[in-house]
Amino acid sequence: MGFSEKHLSDDEQVIFHLRTHVKALLLPVLVLLLLAVGIGFGLRALPADETIGTVGRWAILIVGVVVFVCWVVWPFLTWLTTTYTVTSERLLTRRGIITRTGRDIPLRVINDVAYEMQLNDRILRCGTLVVSAASEQGQVRLNDVPRVQEVQLRLSELVREVNDEVERP
């Protein structure tokens, strides 16, 4: 899914349009697998014709659906709706399933762009992008950015280019 052109100004171009790293889905996939095994085992272990078996099956299915929605569907939707976009003029963040939150930071107010990578981030080639802006919010931390080093480098170059254009008469 690309970034909608209607949200861009006339000369603005999309440089990066990213979702958070797919590592955010590792735990939901593990939960899904364990849930399937647990439900299968639980349904198989209950007696076939007794009232306890019927009530037990319904209880297992209801608990399974609740766990599925809370630990699989919700994290997937969170991952799906969290995006980071770098354009030639600004950094845009969008997140939220029910309540959408968006933030646009013009490149000309960005003071510093850094990144942080834990060991698992280095293996998966992602990390946290830390953007310091001259605004009330100060720092913005973008978690689980794919190819964070590449994004940090390109964003720093864009900030420098914008600041060079502002300084020229």
At CATH level 3, the topology of the largest domain is PH-domain like
**Distance between the ends:** 39 Å
Number of strands: 7
Q: Give the strand line-up of the largest sheet.
A: 1-2-3-4
SSE series: EHHEEEEHEEH
For the record, the CATH architecture of the largest domain stands as Roll
Low-confidence stretches: none
> Based on the structure, what is the oligomeric state of the protein chains?
single chain
- CATH homologous superfamily annotation of the largest domain: Pleckstrin-homology domain (PH domain)/Phosphotyrosine-binding domain (PTB)
Largest sheet: 4 strands, antiparallel
Overall number of structural domains: 2
CATH class of the largest domain: Mainly Beta
Specify the helix fraction band: 40-55%
Mean pLDDT: 90
- Proportion of residues in β-strands: 25-35%
Give the structural class. Answer: alpha+beta
Number of helices: 4
What is the molecular shape?
A: elongated
Tell me the Rg in angstroms: 22 Å
Tell me about this structure:
- The chain contains 4 helices and 7 strands, in the order βααββββαββα.
- It is α+β, with helices and mostly antiparallel strands.
- The strands form 2 sheets. The protein has a 4-stranded antiparallel sheet with strand order 1-2-3-4.
- A hairpin with a 5-residue loop joins β6 and β7.
- It folds into 2 domains: 5-20 and 82-167, Roll (PH-domain like), CATH 2.30.29; 26-78.
- Helices cover 46% and strands 27% of the residues.
- The chain has helices at 26-45, 51-81, 119-124, 148-167, and strands at 14-19, 83-87, 90-95, 101-106, 110-116, 126-133, 139-146.
